[in-house]
Amino acid sequence: MSLSLVHTFTGHTDKCWATSIHSKLPLLATVSGDRTCRVYNLETKRLIVVLDDDSHSKTLSSVEWKPTGEFPSLAIGSFDSTISIWGNEEAVLEDEDNWTLMAIIEGHENEIKGVSWSHDGVYLASCSRDKSIWIWEADDNNEEFECVFVVQEHSQDVKHVTWHQHENVLASSSYDDTVKLFKQDDYDEDDWVNVADLTGHEGTVWSSDFEKKGERVTRLSSSSDDGTIRIWKILHAADDQPSIDSKLPSTIKTDTNQDMWELETILPIIHHGPIYSVAWGENGYIASVGSDGRIVVYKELNSKEWQIIISQPHSHGVYEINNIKWHGDRLITAGDDGLVKLWELAL
Amino acid sequence: MTDLINAAPKVLNVDQLPTREGKEDRIEQSGYLPGLLSLSVFNVPFTEKSSPGSTPALSDSSLQSDDEEFESVDALEIYDLISSISDPEHPLTLGQLAVVNLEDIQLDDSGNPNEIAEVIIKITPTITHCSLATLIGLGIRVRLERCLPPRYRIIIKVKEKTHQSENQVNKQLNDKERVSAACENDQLLKVISQMLSSCK
């Protein structure tokens, strides 16, 4: 198996930190240290718009399209500690004048490292060097964002947040070497419970991604500065049936509010140095990138055995690769060279 | 800075410090350096400026900042780049204070300009609780990121047992996001450019 380069998106003048592909429309958004967000048509490969009106004063570190809504919109997180929301309320996506800044969200004290929308588009999570994760409730038109909960369970920078594709479960990765999972409380929807701590990585956890199989949370992959990718499996989900002590505050009934997770396996080690991004595809494959410039794709043989089917060095020349995403059987990578590359798995 | 963190640091004489600059004889004397040198001569790529057939001489060290023509360096050249950085607290360089030492620079480089290379630098803070260790490390990183080609991965650590919070400092100095964010902090950049102003 090999990767073939389909297209290279150029234009950023500084490191590209993250990308996002719209779940329904052929839209690709990329963000960079050049403080701009570029939006491309993934089919024609044409640049649609550069979102850049000085709304951010520092690096744009993260971006994610909202999965729902009448019109496409996205959230951008910046090292300037704010989040901006952009959208296109008109029918013509290709007209750059239709893309407007809809909101600026303030609250974090330091650099924002990650933003992510829940599957239903109701919640936006953001994480920061200030060690916190904020959960914002969004309205349909992206006009108002109300902070409904602030998670302060991590002891260090929170590097990345991602939601499960069907459940309101959030996974956060941190400089404190852990991944934590949070679930919306069954009785108080504005309360978010820390249902599991995944410990074992021996360095900053840079990212995580849920398995895309099924409706419920099954497994999670996490990538770390320690050069490993770990696969975690849920054994027993926190009791979601009403129980006798259901009227007690959530802090007391900790036992019933804990998920049971175990480390299932560590993927074959091939990266040298930090692994900045991991992505679990709908095809079941896992892909990873990092400081060593390698794109690695792993295939599961059985529950504890994974095989490396692709390991491609120098995918962005001698530069580091910050982010990888699946798009069907294609991959999108973003590098320190400012380039965004679209790859196809050649069987 | 009224209260110095380390009021009486040990200072080395500038003449005792190793350097490539104008001291060709030193290089010849060294046992392992000729090997390294021949390697890097071999790998210096032909740039537009070098006329065909001419072998770029290592001695005309083009290691000034913003010069991206060279592709290979050795430990001594890296030492020259960072030993001239000023200490944030004393009117002395990191070389004079023995914060950076030639033997604590490790280079893993095939010399191939298309391959990723690794530089590991261990710094020796002047005192074990030096709160400026991260700033010094950041200054070294900024200097090297500006001077070395992008294929070099720079790893900066405090030397074992020379700092109370060794692991914390190491983690911070090698965290890509923290370093990037620090480089967007104007106050910090001002201090660093002061530290780098003494560099040749």
Q: Quick gist of this model?
A:
Chain A has 347 residues and is mostly beta strands. Chain A has no helices and 29 strands. Chain A has a four-stranded antiparallel beta sheet with strand order 1-29-28-27, with no helix packed on it. In chain A, strands 2-3-4-5 form a four-stranded antiparallel beta sheet, with no helix packed on it.
What would the keywords be for this entry?
heterodimer; A: Methylamine Dehydrogenase, Chain H; 4-stranded antiparallel β-sheet; B: 200 residues; alpha+beta; GMP Synthetase, Chain A, domain 3; 3-stranded mixed β-sheet
Order of helices and strands of chain A: EEEEEEEEEEEEEEEEEEEEEEEEEEEEE
Corresponding CATH superfamily of chain B: Fe-S cluster assembly (FSCA)
Greatest contact pair?
A: A-B, 29 and 15 residues
Give the CATH level 1 class of chain A.
Mainly Beta
Name given to the CATH architecture of chain A:
7 Propeller
What can you tell me about this protein's structure?
- The complex is a heterodimer of chains A (347) and B (200).
- With 347 residues, chain A is an all-beta fold.
- Chain A has a single domain (2-346), classed as Methylamine Dehydrogenase, Chain H (7 Propeller), CATH 2.130.10.10.
- Chain A has no helices and 29 strands.
- In chain A, strands 1-29-28-27 form a four-stranded antiparallel beta sheet, with no helix packed on it.
- In chain A, strand 11 and strand 12 (133-138) form a beta hairpin.
- Chain A is globular, with a radius of gyration of 19 Å.
- Chain A starts with a strand and ends with a strand.
- By secondary structure, chain B is of the alpha+beta class.
- Chain B has a single domain (14-45, 58-196), classed as GMP Synthetase, Chain A, domain 3 (2-Layer Sandwich).
- Chain B is built from seven helices and three strands, in the order αααββαβααα.
- Chain B has helices spanning 24-29, 33-43, 75-83, 133-147, 166-173, 176-182, 186-196, and strands at residues 105-108, 117-123, 152-158.
- Chain B has a three-stranded mixed beta sheet with strand order 1-2-3.
- In chain B, helix 4 links the parallel strand 2 (117-123) and strand 3.
- The radius of gyration of chain B is 17 Å and the shape is globular.
- Chain B starts with 23 loop residues before the first helix and ends with a helix.
- The A-B interface holds A 15, 33, 58-59, 61, 79, 110-111, 113, 129, 157, 159, 175, 203-204, 225, 273-274, 276, 291-293, 314, 317-320, 336-337 and B 114-116, 149-151, 153, 171, 175-178, 180-181, 184.
- Chain B: This is Cytosolic iron-sulfur protein assembly machinery component.
- Chain B: InterPro entries: FSCA_dom_sf, MIP18.
- Chain B: One of its GO terms (biological process) is protein maturation.
- Chain B: Keywords: Chromosome partition.
- Chain B: Belongs to the MIP18 family.
